[in-house]
Amino acid sequence: MGRTTMIFTAPRQEARVANPPVSTIPRPAKQLLRMSKQLCRFQVRQVAENVLYHLHSAYLFTASDLKTIVGPKTAFGTVSVLSTSAFDIQPTPSLSWVLYRVPLVAFWTWINLLPFVIDNQRQPASIREDSLNKPWRPLPTKRLTQAQARYLILTLYPIALVASVLLGGVKQCLALMVLGFWYNDCLGADSSFVVRNLINACGFICYASGAMEVALGRPLPENIVLNQWFSVVGAVVFSTVQIQDMHDQAGDALRGRRTMPLVVGDAPCRWMIAVPTVFWTCFCPWFWSLGAGAYGAPAILGGTVVVKTLIQRTVKDDAVTFWIYNCWLVSLYLLPMVKSYATAQ
């Protein structure tokens, strides 16, 4: 009898399609949520653009002074702290500590410079001068108004003071505020080139000593050699800083400033730059009792300043000479470190 095979087929199960979750948010609420997200992204973008805009404005205010104040004074503070043995300051900080403080030194110098230059550039005569000499600055280009510039000044001076309380250099910060008021609001920079050079020299000392204090991380000690060096640096600036006015004579004349090249004449002023430059190039290495090799960099840079000042007299040449002059100042700032290294050998 044949075997009957029965094949059972499992019943076909139809594919189940999961029902999508039903949103419990009403359509108007979803639209409102979408609009809120878009508005939030727009506001974040606007805030970021405004921050970048004002940071760029701050850069433009100080762009001309980065090579004359921020860079050289940051270098002065850093190398001076690395040269504490030359000043007999103990204990000597480690290299890692000094490198860690370099950005703080640069920030301290810049934040104390910023309100000063804004106050200087917001004056009506300064705006007219900058329209001729530096038309890219914020006020001639209408990036902000004079009223907004004044508001910035009143905001930035307290910020600079707070930064000095936290980082160091409080006395220097307060002194810079007084010098800035004298220079800008009392027209100390306009009435006499002697007063102008004196304020510049005092300002350089404040920036230099403040930068060194921030780099050191503690108040500067009372030190005869250090005070003498600050005095030498001040004298160097007082007798040579008129070099910064050589390429700005057109703007200074428009403003009515009594700068040295406009008062004594272009040619005599150039000799009044060259002679002190030669003197300080020889005196500063001698002050530190250094050997002949230490005269090399100051002599090369100082000699270049002298030659270019006396021979190359165009506005463009004078601007380049001023840049080399700042390099010459840095070469003088390095002398205490050379002394410290020579003593350690």
Can you count the beta strands? 0
Helix content class? over 70%
Main sheet properties: none
The gross shape turns out to be globular
Could you describe the 3D structure shown?
With 345 residues, the protein is mainly alpha-helical. 74% of the residues lie in helices and 0% in strands. It is built from 16 helices and no strands. It has helices at 27-62, 66-81, 84-87, 95-121, 124-133, 146-167, 170-185, 188-191, 193-216, 224-240, 249-255, 260-264, 266-287, 296-311, 315-333, 335-344. Helix 6 (146-167) runs antiparallel to helix 7 (170-185), helix 10 (224-240) packs antiparallel against helix 13 (266-287) and helix 13 packs antiparallel against helix 14 (296-311). The N and C termini lie far apart (118 Å). Residues 1-15 have low confidence and may be disordered.
Main attributes?
345 residues; mainly alpha; 16 helices; 74% helix; globular
Topology overview:
Blueprint lengths: L26 H36 L3 H16 L2 H4 L7 H27 L2 H10 L12 H22 L2 H16 L2 H4 L1 H24 L7 H17 L8 H7 L4 H5 L1 H22 L8 H16 L3 H19 L1 H10 L1
